[in-house]
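Pipeline run #58 for the internal structure catalog. This entry was flagged by the ingest filter as a single-chain record with no existing model, so it goes straight to prediction. Upstream metadata was stripped on purpose; only the residue string is passed forward. Reviewer on rotation: M.T. Logging verbosity set to normal.
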Amino acid sequence: MNKRPDVPVGPEQSAAAPLPGNDRGPIQSIDRAANILALFDENTRTLTPPLVSERLGLNRTTAHRYLQALQSAGFLSPALSPGPLLDQLSALVSTRQQIVTLAPTIMRHLSDETGLTVVLSFLGRSGAIVTLVEEATVGTILLTVPVGTVLELKAAQSRILLAFQSDPDTVSRALAALPPAELPAEQAALARARRERVAWADLNRMGLASVAAPIFSDHDVQAAMGLLGTTTMLSTDDEGARNRVALLSDAASELSSLIST
């Protein structure tokens, strides 16, 4: 029985370079702050200097100083209970868990309808990070991408996530990696993605194409869902391809409606 060859699409995430010298170990202040926040559990809803001192072996002055710093940074409330930053992070994790739970069924259906591989990504520091993949079950060649891959800035899913990103600093930081001569064209591509609510890849790879649509929760973009295929199956001039893009947009809207309720 012949197996279909897998054709990976996109670069794999490179390993982080080791830190030089003595910087390889943990940073003490961050390590201590993490240990203090880890004291929260179902029985500990607020923190005090005596409690932190007793459980972590710190003197009370040090414990008090750390609690004040964590409160100023938003990790703790004025009452030394979980603060607004922790609430924000908790909501983000909850939304992502919802997406990861609900997406596979929708992605599988979309893959079966289009005959293409479907990919879901979240935005990382330098581009979209592939989180879920539903591979096409038809055809003799399989286009796929490994989970954990960091996609290029000009990948469709990176573009759609940046196009609808509400934090301008995040967009500026990502685009800073591009040569200055390429910046105007990329900004135009993001503007087009906002108008059309889909983004196309521009990776200069012969015969390969991808398109992505945004997934929203409370009007903020949370993830991107994309199709991987050949230029024949994903051509802007082909009616069949336009139908596949419409199915992608419908699937992304369906997932958005489920996580927004």
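catalog note: The first strand starts at residue 6 and ends at 8.
catalog note: The chain has eight helices and seven strands.
status: ready for reviewer M.T.
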